[in-house]
Amino acid sequence: MSICDCFDLPVSGADADAVAGYNAYVAEFLSYGANLRALFEIADNNPGAALINAHAAALHLAFEGAEGWEFAKPYLTNMNACVRNASLREQLFCSAVNAWAAKDFQTARTVLDDLTVRWPADLCALKWGQYHAFNLGDQGALLRFGQRAAIAHEDTPYAHGMIAFALEQNHQLEKAEEEGLRAVEISIDDAWAHHAVAHVMETQGRAKEGAKWLDHCSHTWEKKGVFIRDHNYWHAALFRLSLGRHDEALKIFDDRLWGAWPEFPQEQIGAVSMLWRLELRGADVGERWAPVVNQARARAGEHIFAFHDLHYLYALARAGNSGEADSFLTSMRTHAECLDGSVGHLWRDLTIPTAEALNAFAKGQKDQAGEKLSTLMPELYKVGGSHAQRHIFVETLEACAPDAGKSHSFN
After folding, report:
1. pTM of the model
2. Where are the domains of the chain?
3. What mean pLDDT, rounded, does the chain reach?
4. What is the rounded CA–CA span in Å between residue 37 and residue 28?
């Protein structure tokens, strides 16, 4: 008989100690804790627990670089060897992870959609569903997962932060802020809720209030994982930019945005994005591009996410070696030609032209860049990223000409 987890859902092939370890992972995962890696030892010791091995594989895949796919392999092998003995819910989660490993992110989201309609108590599956919906630019799915969390987890720590971000990305700003503040009432350290409220304030132009909000919350982030620490400080720097405090933004970059885990793709794109913005606003970033560009070079040929590739391309173009950026763009085109269906459309008809525009902009060809970006802007939500993250494309368009992009809002 299977032992149940903290959501009263059975975990097949695991003893009491393994389930206790899985529950500890659940708490770390939902709170963006720093001890997620403890799950790997639990999975290593329980190769017959399909769900635990599926989550271990998912953690590696969520690194979002080629290394993650390599490190996920043994857990995928264990998962698939015993999945037939798992429950239907667990089998569905394993199917989603298999699709993810095959880089079929749309199927992964669809399977998690199906799973969480049947078992909305599985808050981890809801969280992973939001992860895929976000990367796919699917704001409707992001909200569906959030609404299921709202139904099943009214008093569950960290659920309201998930709901808040989904609402914000769907332009329901007042409700988003209300849910974010509710989350903090339940769990003062809900860094994702801190982040959701910051998004509301950014969208509403409340930069001074936003900077104070994140400063107030930041003492709780020291025990969090690198991603949320980096990303929330990225928002803190963004508020400083809005207030014209470039020196403060640069200090946040030096102290908090670069250097904790330079090999981590999320740290890389956050750094590219901040340096890009700083320069668009006239700041001198000195030699800060060099180590970031070195990391971008290491991602050449991976082509996992369109949003990431656009940042890597810009970093290489900004480095001043046009041949290197052109080669990266050629590699992106080759990758795009190998893709079918809607994913192929995303890369060929949207990602590649956007990359061409950014490459032209970095070379000083602003007329060409502006012409392309202005036609692509309405569809750019499809490349993933949040409203705040994608606003860099709007700022770049506006930099192409004194009056360019003034009428463009971001989706």
Report:
1. 0.96
2. 1-142, 154-204
3. 96
4. 10
